[in-house]
Design a protein that fits this description.
334 residues; Alpha-Beta Plaits; 20% strand
Length: 334
């Protein structure tokens, strides 16, 4: 029985008899000489490659998107479209494909032209099939290294955008991504809202119960915010005990409902269940941007922050909307 696992991209994708199984490398071969094409086909098949062959570059090009090969081997001299032009088209659409050119031409000019079009390797005719297999194996190693590099870069990028303790996005992510969302919302005439939340008495939790208790409080609040919001909302740990929630397509009334939902869910959480001696509460501040308001993200965050500190100063464990709206007036806001 084969068990599919999601691990590193195209490295080990399944296990058979408790042994890792490497995915089959796909090779497309384009050669107008049928005898050479047949010989290449059987040489590669014998080594376990998945091979598709074409005697013309045009149908090969049409099927590259469907075949999704790892490696393309192409003769340079062909009717309709030569190997140089074929390479150019393939590489423009699929930079990740490793392209090997077969050629009877061995001048520096021909090689430079092919490399300029994106070719990765040249094999000069007549060639030994052992050499061809060796070049294909070398291409496999290069492809694998490239995939590993892409995987590691994506992982590093994700880590750079993620708060290690709470697993929420961090301030860096917020500052990079939210401006794009605001611009999109303005373009389509949508109002957006931002909620700033701060854990009440967090210093007392750290001082009296220790930093481990403080970490538990941060993790608990993070999870409650996630459970109280939509997938389209952007939730970030902004710094220390502060969190920010960006709400696309959300008017003041609905933003207030979301903030209150978060606040109440935190308030009613069993303190003992999350390892704290006293209940958790948060203070929340809301800022609104309508499509026509000329206001930067920095100013919007500052407004939400001021509203949040107003909530702190007026007793904590409450939600305040930045200056334009009062809670009692929200029933009249549409």
């Amino acid at each position: 029985m084969n068990t599919t696992v999601l691990q590193k991209p195209n490295t080990i994708t399944s296990f058979r008899n408790n042994k890792p199984v490497k995915p089959v490398t796909k090779v497309v071969v384009v050669e107008d000489d049928e005898s050479i094409l047949e010989l290449i086909y059987f040489a590669l098949k014998k080594k376990g490659y998945e091979v598709k062959t074409y005697n013309n570059a045009l149908p090969a090009l049409d099927n590259i998107n469907i075949d999704k090969p790892d490696i393309v081997i192409s003769d340079i001299m062909m009717p309709g479209m030569d190997g140089i032009e074929f390479c150019k088209h393939v590489k423009n659409a699929h930079k990740e494909i490793y392209f090997i050119i077969l050629t009877a031409k061995d001048t520096i000019e021909d090689k430079v032209e092919g490399l300029d079009m994106g070719a990765d390797e040249y094999i000069t005719k007549p060639f030994d099939f052992m050499e061809l297999i060796a070049r294909v194996k070398a291409a496999e190693r290069i492809i694998e290294n490239q995939k590993q590099l892409v995987y590691l870069n994506e992982k590093l990028e994700k880590l750079a955008d993620t708060d290690e303790l709470t697993r929420l996005k961090n301030r860096r992510y917020f500052q990079n991504e939210v401006p794009k969302e605001i611009e999109r919302s303005s373009r389509y005439g949508h109002t957006v809202s931002i909620i700033m939340l701060d854990i009440d008495n967090f210093k007392i939790i750290n001082d009296n119960e220790g930093h481990q208790a403080g970490d538990k409080a941060l993790q608990a609040v993070s999870q409650i915010i996630k459970n109280s919001t939509r997938e389209s909302d952007i939730i970030c740990r902004y710094g220390g005990e502060e969190f920010v929630v960006f709400l696309p397509e959300t008017n003041p009334k609905n933003a207030f409902k979301v903030a209150e939902k978060i606040r109440r869910n935190i308030e009613k959480t069993d303190a003992n269940f999350i390892g704290l001696s006293k209940p958790l509460t948060v203070s929340a501040g809301i800022a609104i941007k309508t499509p026509h308001m000329k206001i930067s993200l920095k100013e919007l965050v500052e407004q939400a922050d001021k509203a949040m500190y107003t909530a702190k100063r007026s007793g904590k464990n409450k939600t305040v909307i930045y200056k334009w709206f009062k809670v009692n007036d929200l029933k009249n806001v549409h």
